[in-house]
Structure formats: C-alpha cells, structure tokens
Amino acid sequence: MERATPATLTEFKDELSNTLLNILDTWSIDFKTYRSTTSGTSTAIQESNSNSKLMYSITLSHQNNKTVLIKNDTKIAMIMAASKNEIPTELISNGCISDTNPIPIDVLLNNKLSNLWTQRQSIKGTGGETFQTTNKLLIRVINLFSSTGFKGLLIECEDQSTDGITNGSQVFHTNNKITFQEKIQTITNILTKLSTPTSVKAPTTTTTTDYKISMDSLNLDHSDYLGDLGYQYVRVLEF
Amino acid sequence: MVQQISLFGVIDEESYDLFISTITTLSGTSPILFSRFSTVWKPLSQQYDIDNIDAKNQITEPNRITVSKSIPFNQFQFSSSSDAEYDYKILKSLSDDTIPMDPQEIISIIYKTNAQGSSSSSCSWSLAISDIPAAGANKKVSLQTINESVLLYSTGEKSSLSDTMNALGYNLDYNYVTIGVKFYLKHELIIEVQKIWTINNNNDTANTLQVTKNGYLIKAYVDVNRSTDIDRINYTETLLLNLQRELQGYVDLVIPDRKSMDSRMSYF
Amino acid sequence: MSQPTGIDASVVPTNTLQDELKPNFGGIPTQALDAVRMRLAQLTHSLRKIRDDLSRAELPQWYSLQSQLNVTLAQLASVTSTLQHFQDTLDSTVVYPLPKFPTTSHENLLTTLLRKKNAPDVDEWINNSKEALGMDPNVQNVKELERSLQEDKDITKWALETVATEFEKHNFKNISENDLINRNITANTSYKPKKPFSVENILSFTYRGETKNPSEAA
Lengths: 239, 268, 218
Fold this sequence. Notes:
The complex is a heterotrimer of chains A (239), B (268) and C (218). Chain A has 239 residues and is α+β, with helices and mostly antiparallel strands. Helix content of chain A is 24%, strand content 30%. Chain A has a domain at 6-36 and 52-162 and 213-237: q64v53_bacfr protein fold, CATH 2.20.140.20. A 7-stranded antiparallel beta sheet of chain A has the order 4-3-2-1-5-6-7, with helices on both faces. In chain A, helix 1 (8-16) crosses helix 5. The longest helix of chain A is centred in the last third of the chain and has 19 residues, at 177-195. With 268 residues, chain B is of the alpha+beta class. The two termini of chain B are 29 Å apart. Chain B has an 8-stranded antiparallel β-barrel with strand order 1-5-4-3-2-6-7-9, surrounded by 4 helices. Chain B is 19% helix and 35% strand. Chain B has helices at 16-27, 45-48, 103-111, 161-168, 230-246; strands spanning 2-12, 32-43, 65-70, 125-130, 142-156, 170-184, 190-202, 205-210, 215-224. Chain C has helices at residues 6-21, 30-55, 62-85, 87-91, 107-114, 120-132, 142-170, 177-187, 199-208. At the A-B interface, strand 4, helix 3, helix 4 and helix 6 of A face strand 2, helix 2, strand 3, strand 4 and strand 5 of B. Strand 4 of chain A pairs antiparallel with strand 5 of chain B, so a sheet runs across the interface. Chain C: Component of the Mediator complex. Chain C: Keywords: Activator, Nucleus, Transcription, Transcription regulation. Chain C: Belongs to the Mediator complex subunit 8 family. Chain C: This is Mediator of RNA polymerase II transcription subunit 8.
C-alpha cells in the first residue's frame, strides 16, 4: 500500500479485530536496493532494461535476521546467515570460516563490494505486528519508512492451514490456493475499503486500488520459503 | 569481521610424523583431519572497467572472494588399506598430484544447483574477503582482516554457486583443495598442517596438481573477533611468539611477505 | 596421632617432676630428651595444622597442602633420626618414682609412666599403621618388617625414576638447539625438517592464484 498514512495500520487492525485470534511477536524488516556501478559493457546487461542492474537485500527479523539477496534479472536468491548459530558446523570445523558471527551481507556489499554495488535505497520497518486470525491466516503488518519519510503499509499473509505453523505452507503460494485466494480476498476487501478515500496508485496502470499483491514464486519447479518470500517482497516494494 | 593473527612454516614429508607427535605432545590434543574446497572468484572488472573508487569516493580496490566449503571425508576414496580409519596418517599417502577423489566431481559442485535439500552434502558456503595483512617493518606476526559471510543456500531458476557469484558480479578465478590435520591448542590457537592441490579444469577434463609437493604447509593462527580488541590481539601475538620460540630451531615459523597474502586484483 | 612414640614421650614429664624435687640430675639424659621433645612439639603442631585445614569447609590450595605435608614429613624424619641417634641412651633409661611423688593424686600418671608395654591406644596406632602398610599386624618378625620396608623403598625408587624419565620426555623447555637436533637423530630423521618450498609460494597461490610451477618448487 503506497498512498497510505501511518494511521492506516491502525485502521487495518480495527477491521481485522473481529477475526483476530492471537497477537504474536513483533518483527522488523530492512529492505535495501543496490545498483550495479559497472558501466555495462556486457551484452547481456545492455539488452535487458536498467532493472537488471538492481539487486535487493531483505533482512527479516522473524526469519532469524537471515538476509535474502535477490538479483533482479537472473531471478536468483541467496540466503545469508546472520548469526554463528546458523553456520553449518562443518564449515567451522574444517576451517572454512572462523567461529564468530558472520558479517551481514549488507555490510559486505557496502564496505567491500562498494566498487561493484552502490546502495540506492533503504526502506526500514520496525515494530511490526503479527496477528493470527480465526481462518488460520498469519498476518504481518508493518509501516515502512525510508530516509524521506513514510513509504507505506506492508502486509504479509501466510496460510497456516495446510501443514501447521512450522513448515510447508508457502507465503502466497500454497497447495490449496483457492481457499487462500478467498482468504486474501477478505484482506483485499479491507484494503479497498480503507483506500477509497485516499488517492491511489498501482504498479503499472492507475486504477482504483493502491495496493500491490504478489504471489509469485522465484522458481515454480522448486519452491523455497525464504527465496519466494524475498521475491514477493521485491515484487511488492520495487518501484 | 575477524582479525586473523598467524605465522607460517614449512616441513618436508619425512618430518611429518615427528611434527605431528611434537605438536600432539605440546598441545596435549590429537590431530583432527579436515578438508575443504576453496573457490576463488574475481570481479568482472576486466570487462567492466571498474574504478577503484566507489560512489562515496572511497577507495575500494577490486578484491577476490574466497568461497569455500568442506568436503565430507566419506567422499574420498583412499587407496591405502587404512581406508576405514581416518586419522592423520592418511596425509602421508597423499604425496603426489592426485587427490583421493574425482576432480571433475569436485568442480561440478560449482555448477550444480545450490538449492536447499538438492544434494546430500550441505549447500552452505563461506564467503571470505581478505584484506592485505597489516604493514609494518617491526611486525612479528601476520595480522590480517578477513570479512566473512555465510551463504546458507541459493534458490531460483538457476541457483548454482557459479550463477550466484555471477549475479554478484564475480567470475571464477581458480580453485583448490586443502586436506590437512589441525590441532586445537589453548587460547583458541589452531595449528594446521596442510596439503594443497590446485584443480585445473579444461573443458570436460579436470586434473589436479599438488602445490605443496614434498612437504606440508604449517599455519598457526588465532582469530580475534574484533579488531578493536587490542588486549586480545596483543595477547595473541605473545601466544604465537611463544609457540615460535618453543619450536625454534626445529620448525621456523615466519611471517610471510604480506604481498603474498594480498588477494586484491592487480590490473595494470 | 600426635605422639607416635609413646614410651619416649612419657619420659618427659618425669623430668619435670624430678625438677621439683631437686634430685641428682646426673643420670638423666637431658640432652636426648630435650631434643626429642622439641622435635615432637614441632611435629604435633604441624600435624594439628594439617588436620584443621582438612576439616575446614573450603580446602586449601593443593600446593599449600603439599608444602605443609613436605614440612611435616621432614619433621617426622627429624624425630626418627633423633630417636635413632639417642637410641642407646633412651633404651637404657629407666623411669622410677621418687619417694616424694604424690602417688595418690597422680596415680594415673604414675601407672602410665611405669608401664612396660605400650598404652592400648598406642598399640592401636602401631597396628593401624602396620595395616595401612599392608602388613599382617601380628607379624613381629624383624626380617619380615625389613623386607616390607625394602619393597616400599623399591617402589618409591621406581616411581621417582619413572617420573623423572617421563618428565624429561615431555619437557621441551630450556632445550638448546643442539638437544633438539640430537633428539631428531634418535627419533626419525638426522636433520632439521627441510623446506621443500617457501611459504610465500604457497600463499601467493591461495591468495592470488599465482602458480610458480609447483612441480619445480622443491
């Protein structure tokens, strides 16, 4: 949701309150955009549009602060560990890496690869809320800010009805898509209701809605929770 | 970001047993086998003509990234009869150019999909960017900053390590296999005895060449977590110098020329 | 525990009693008794201290205990050697009460002093220590006793030698270069390890990918 105000979150919460089952942990997100600094002499890069020079990093606190790094053109996602607890022990025991916390990939990009990648945009959200609704939908809402101010309201929906909370269900991508679509519909209805008074903007064409929904998957053959989640964030947040 | 404080040495193959038993006695610990596959990647700068200066006008020289992972020992095929026992003696059977594994198979790891659960072995890689060791004529130990990150896995339509690194703007430069034993000493001091092979990959064939022919590379090091922890760095330096003194006249531990540990690209 | 040699110790009070009576001191081995008394006093003091330390809730450091024990053992040895030194004198000393001795009020003391056998608790100490040595408490045979002592000495000697050799094997401190080279001769090679290549050559490869024809590196 782009043309929302910080207060939209409260309104959204009010609308949701009837079906609210449980309020879970808070979360935060850090979304950064990088642009390749190379002059682009490669034919592959010349042929594609300027978006191919973009790379995104998404750090999610509710995913153990793991960072998903997504290159736009190649549709490749790299999942980076954030703490030394996540480093596979064989990497440490075989001396591939020291037994310390790895540095975040954002720091690496900014400090060591800054000749290749320049950070363009940083969108942050902190203190996001997580709700569990009666129809087994896990909804994460957060207000996003960039350096210039409020950017919009972000809503992440996760269907927990398929395999339970722990595993299996994909964000916007589940086995029983139809029911999920229905559930999403209730959310979009709320959004439409909320957005009517405000002026709106959609990704490609100007319509009456001001929200973007992504249910994309990075690779249809091999779905991956974090990879897909990151990709969906990129699709929603890229401008 | 770690500070790696290290000293290096070299021994010949005949001295291996004695060295192992010396360090075993000295440390009170047994040698532990390890193996890793390291791939070194260089920025695509030759094609792209990268400046050494970034957008903030800071000098960022193009640097290689070492991406490595462990090779599980059960993937090795040792010819000797002592197949079943993986102990330090295995290293003695590795004196020639060949490694106990199909080099082609190792190389293929780079181009295989790196997605989670796609292979039996772990799909995690460590990424390390090493700065040139600290300068100074009166340096007694080598002090090198290493920036490390961990790639848990990749995903997407093309998700091999090669695809991943290409997306970051890097191309494969060279790669090598290290098999060795290591000792964990007190105060996080680690001594590694290494055998290193380079893998040359030409089209569909790959062959290996031992870099450490007729001998072993000795590396004694300590990783210090924070570069600001001066006390710990000084303490560690003393630790290494004590080891150096203890082995004096037997194995000479030296600081290598810092230029040899400089993994920056040099384009002239 | 504090008085391992009951007979000799009991002679001491006699001395003080006779003092009071101002008898003829000529026949009294003052020097011997005083020497033994002094050393026994030291020993009982040390033993008491160890006992107190050990009964405390927090044990002292091992090294302080060890040094205490060493002192005590030295004092015990000193008592033994003093006793041995004055053995002839003490053996031939006979204790008898003077007529003025207050027999009624100090009957217990008198009977103790005039005993020819050890007091029951002293006997118990002796038996206990014999048992601790692994000997049959009823064996009084001197040869048996000596044999046992000899065995004990042999074991001590062996232990000392073993400790010394093992220590030397693991003692790498203060070894000169020559020692190390000599050690190499006995161990495996007759020379210092050769350096088939230089550290820099290898590092240039791992850090920079530079190969200097490794096959020729030797």
